[in-house]
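debug: dumping io for the single-chain case to check the tokenizer round-trip. Nothing else runs in this session.
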Amino acid sequence: MNPDLAFAVWSGERAARVAAVMDQRLPGIDVPPRALHAAMRYAALGAGKRVRALLAYAAGELAGADPVDVDGAAAAVELVHAYSLVHDDLPCMDDDVLRRGKPTVHIAFGEATALLAGDALQSLAFEILGSPAHGAGDTTAAKSALLAVAVGSRGMAGGQALDLEAVGSQCGPADVERMHELKTGALIRASVRLGAACGATWSSAEYDALDRYASAIGLAFQVVDDVLDVEGTAQTLGKTAGKDAAQQKPTYVSLLGIDGARARVDELRATAHAELARFDARARRLREIADWIALRTN
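debug: decoded output
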């Protein structure tokens, strides 16, 4: 690892790295059931920010871990994220037709295949996380449990349930933050934790600081998403714009206004940087990711 690499170069290299791991572990489209495997590859590969994988690699660098030992965690969180997008887009959920600039999986492959593809992507994530080929060891069970909690009813799935319940209802800022702490933040926190666990042993205080950092950037990511849903277009976002208002979803923008939402992003960015103050220069990439999330335009 060259510490002088610009963030764009570093992030591009790490994104390509995790894509190669997923490409290797995803079944080929010539392997039956072909349609299912084609749908899985369609959902997981190609365009994507790879934020969760980048966080795992950045936390791994902070921990002094070899990227080889982080590969499994990075691929696992990306596959879980891909599964969540497939299911979020289904007609029974957010009912969307565009994702990452192309038709959603249920539009391209049918609703039943999309449902199964999401299920299979989640299963593959845990298979990879426990594989000896990707840094598995004495902590494999703990890592699997950590990811399982992050994606279950006390994490991402629970957040999605709260999101569905919130449609058309009167929610305050605290309700929206709690929803997104689970729906978006839980997997982001797990990404940081999993990457950090691939190297040095951390104190409880250090893990708590990393958790608070991850919580801050997880919320910041969602606030920026809410702003972009109002100000962006399908061409710039790669997904349908304006859906939150159309579906009467409570968002940071609907509660705080554009200026208030932007101010909240600034607060969360500052919090993220403050939580990294105890760490040395190896936290550089985590700091850069916080800035990237807060300033992104798509």
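debug: round-trip ok. The first helix runs from residue 7 to 25.
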